[in-house]
Amino acid sequence: MSGSRNLTFWTGFAVVVAALAVAPPLLPPFWERFVTEILIWGLLAMSSDILIGYTGMVSFGHSAFLGLGMYGTAAALLLLPPNLWLAMSFGLVGAAAVAIFVAYFATRLRDIYFAITTLVFSQIFYVIIFTWTEVTGGENGLTFRQPPLSIPFLFETRFSRETLHWFVLAVVVLSYLVLRRVTQSPFGKVLQAIRENEPRTRAIGYHVERYKMVAVMLSGLFAGLAGSLYAIQNKFVAPDFVFFLISGEVVIFNVMGGMGTLVGPVAGAAFFWLMREAFSRFLTEYYLIPVGLIFTAMVIFLPQGLLGFLRRRLNE
Amino acid sequence: MVIPWELLVIQLLNGVIIGMILALVASGLTLIFGIMDVVNFAHGELYMLGAYMGTTVMLTTGNFWLALGGSALTIAALGAVVQVTALRPLLGRDPLTTILATFGISLVLQNYALWQYGPVARKIDEPFTGQFALFHLQFPWYRVVIALLSAAIILALWLFMKYGKYGIWIRATTQDRVMAAAMGIPVPLVYTMVFAIGSAMAAASGVLYAPLVGINHAMGLDVILRAFIVVVVGGMGNLAGSVLAAIFISLLEALASLWVSPAQAVIVSFIVLILTLLIRPTGLFVPTPK
């Protein structure tokens, strides 16, 4: 790790964060909301990158973590006094509860079996949420009030569009720094060793199962955090977010942006949503036809994704 | 709650019939996986497009059997095109990349169907409307016929694989791709052929099942999940296992829907899958290797 490269990275990081921080007041309201939403999807994509990109386990069930994060937050906001931090911790608890189950399976299954099981697992939650109308609102979902932005004992104020954006940005940037630190730690290196060669990692003496479990828990928690933020931003949750097509989109973000870079999936999410905006201008709801074609072409011709060429630099 | 035994018998019969349709879809999926190591996420979409193609042929010719054959051939051609354009370049890469590529294709096909045929559900009329008395209700003969027809198609596939010249090519390719190529078997062509056969089976089941349920652009999503479950429970790549697993799971779901709503009965099959993966991950219906 050379000093000048490190400097380049942190300069780039500062420029991007500063641009994201000053952007909202300059943009029209629609695009301001759009950027906030991309940050949230980006956090979700980043969380799944821990599994897909770093540990080599393709999860097709991230919608379950997202969804439980959402519904946990919704439960706190509907049943308890409106407190931002309480709501978010409920979301995290919800996601953690799912993550424990998935972590258990993660130790026994690999490759396509892990992908299919996580998919089926998230569908279980979808069916429960969809049919348990009395509690979850069924197909219609739940609506609730937005909690005020508060720092305990200091101040409490209603969210404006700008403060909400800055709050989301702060959470996402902090999550990025934490996840980056994790992937660079010895723990993260073991995850990457599992991705490269699982039997050899085991032979060296690492307890592979334990590492995989922690990776799933970590990934699930950050996905739940994304769900919680989404619920707070939109004051609304619905079973659609638990459906496996969302998990598929998360995988698309990863592949498009570049797996194993953390930043790549965020860029992938932005790329996906921009394409969706652009194509739905003249194709309305059929935008997935060109997006699907582009995605398939990228899987074949650009498996490293958009930012894959930066992979080594971003991980230094 | 007491369930009358007639109802139980009817549900068991329904379970077997739906199981046979599911077996037809799943055997295409397991064929593609077993031979090509491709997890075909677009299989449900091929099934859905098959059903739509059936309605198109039905509108022009008015003959159900022509619709069945025409749809199977068209979707087989589509499958061949998909395999050549999207999967052939992925040969030799991680099987996981095939999930990604076929997932992209499934999005394209699903939205193409929505665009082409619109959001209103369609229906194919039953080719014949005869019924027989089963306890207190009239049971349509057509349902029995689709179960038998599905069984016949699967049996034909099995015979083809066992005794047909090209079936032997396919099995040789599965066993050793390089050796098969050295013996003069056109391996890339075999892969395309296998994908086309799997697609045709998906299309055929779509047309056969369409008279019982409506056709809409999202019907593939439900089927692909169930087919995945069946294929894993039956043992990936194992034809007979898939058939047994399809019937087993459909029976369980049919019985479960006596007590809970059909939407919730799906959970039974999810649980079967998870238990299978925990207890016997190679598949419930696979003989233990000696």
Describe the overall structure.
The complex is a heterodimer of chains A (316) and B (290). Chain A is mainly alpha-helical and 316 residues long. Chain A has a domain of 206 residues: ABC transporter involved in vitamin B12 uptake, BtuC, CATH 1.10.3470. In chain A, the strands form 2 sheets. In chain A, strands 1-4 form a two-stranded antiparallel ribbon. Chain A has a two-stranded antiparallel sheet with strand order 2-3. In chain A, a hairpin with a 3-residue loop joins strand 2 and strand 3. In chain A, helix 2 runs parallel beside helix 7, helix 3 packs across helix 10 and helix 7 packs across helix 8. Chain B is mostly helical and 290 residues long. Chain B has a domain of 194 residues. In chain B, strands 1-2 form a two-stranded antiparallel ribbon. In chain B, a hairpin with a 2-residue loop joins strand 1 and strand 2. In chain B, helix 1 runs parallel beside helix 5, helix 1 crosses helix 9 and helix 3 packs antiparallel against helix 8. The chains are: A mainly alpha (316), B mainly alpha (290). Chains A and B meet through helix 5, helix 11 and helix 13 of A and helix 4, helix 9 and helix 11 of B.
Question: What is this structure's SSE topology?
Answer:
The complex is a heterodimer of chains A (316) and B (290).
Chain A: H1 3-26, H2 29-55, H3 62-79, H4 84-106, H5 111-131, H6 133-136, E1 142-143, E2 149-151, E3 155-157, H7 161-184, H8 186-196, H9 198-204, H10 208-234, E4 236-237, H11 244-257, H12 263-283, H13 288-301, H14 311-314
Antiparallel strand pairs in A: 1-4, 2-3
Helix pairs in contact in A: 1-2, 1-7, 2-7, 2-10, 2-11, 2-12, 3-4, 3-5, 3-10, 4-10, 7-8, 8-9, 8-10, 11-12
Chain B: H1 5-36, H2 43-61, H3 64-87, H4 95-117, E1 131-134, E2 137-140, H5 141-163, H6 165-175, H7 177-182, H8 187-209, H9 219-234, H10 239-256, H11 262-279
Antiparallel strand pairs in B: 1-2
Helix pairs in contact in B: 1-5, 1-8, 1-9, 1-10, 2-3, 2-4, 2-8, 2-9, 3-8, 5-6, 6-8, 9-10, 9-11, 10-11
